[in-house]
Specification:
This is Ribose 1,5-bisphosphokinase PhnN. One of its GO terms (molecular function) is kinase activity. Keywords: Kinase, Transferase. The protein is built from ten helices and six strands, in the order H-E-E-H-E-H-H-E-H-H-H-E-H-H-E-H. It is an alpha/beta fold. It has a single domain, classed as 3-Layer(aba) Sandwich (Rossmann fold), CATH 3.40.50. A six-stranded mixed β-sheet has the order 3-1-4-2-5-6, sandwiched between helices.
């Protein structure tokens, strides 16, 4: 019974990972990050349509379970949380990420470790820079940004056409949504700065510039990974 519950949590807490169609010199995990509603899912579908990603999601095992650097990252998260359920899910996400690095190809991950642990990674880079570098080794980040007004319009459109409102967006005014998204994008910008300071690859894309530009930039970014 215990194993069944563990497997259920592992599968439910995993990220959506897709193999990159074009080969690179090394295996990388590319975290796609951005505020809720900016269009990450739509972008992934477009990357699949343009044969940059494969359509089938990766199945990631859970053989590896030990990593001192990720354990320290989780301890930072634990210091900020009093909800055991959330902490448990974060632990599963870290485990999933650890095993994803065993995959012998470059993969793009929707809302991966850099998305889920943005604040903790920034703090880790200050307190334990060696652990930060260990976690970021063979990792890249694609950071989506846009004007708060554009994100708000996407949120409204989703609500009108699909009848869906994410929990982050419920009961918020347009001004509150804008402040929320500015804060989220600010935290991600800080992580990107820390990555650049440590020499890790990242790409920040302004969604306002259009889908074709985004696809071209991502395609070139993946090919340039060394």
């Amino acid at each position: 019974m215990k194993a069944s519950v563990y497997n259920f949590l592992y599968n439910r807490a995993g990220f959506k990972a897709y193999r990159c169609s074009k080969s690179t010199n090394h295996s990388f995990v590319i975290d796609l990050v951005g505020p809720p509603g900016i269009g990450k899912t739509y972008l992934i579908k477009s990357l699949i349509k343009n044969s940059i990603l494969t359509s089938r999601r990766l199945k990631v095992g859970k053989k590896k379970k030990e990593c001192a650097s990720r354990a320290r990252l989780l301890s930072i998260a634990a210091n900020e949380l009093d909800d055991i359920d959330i902490l448990q899910r974060k632990a599963i996400k870290i485990l999933y990420d650890l095993n994803m690095h065993e995959f012998p190809a470059t993969v793009l991950v929707d809302e991966g470790l850099s998305h889920q642990f943005t604040n903790e990674l920034c703090l880790l880079s200050e307190l334990y820079p060696d652990d930060f570098r260990a976690i970021m080794n063979n990792r890249a980040v694609i950071n989506l940004t846009a004007s708060p007004e554009m994100i708000n319009e996407r949120i409204k459109r989703r609500s009108r056409t699909k009848g869906q409102t994410l929990s982050y967006h419920k009961n918020k005014t347009c001004d509150e949504l804008s402040l929320f998204n500015i804060e989220v994008m600010g935290r991600r910008a800080m992580l990107i700065r820390r990555m650049k300071e440590s020499g890790f690859p990242s790409l920040t894309i302004d969604v306002d510039k259009g889908l074709d530009k985004m696809i071209s930039d991502i395609d070139n970014f993946i090919l340039d990974l060394q």
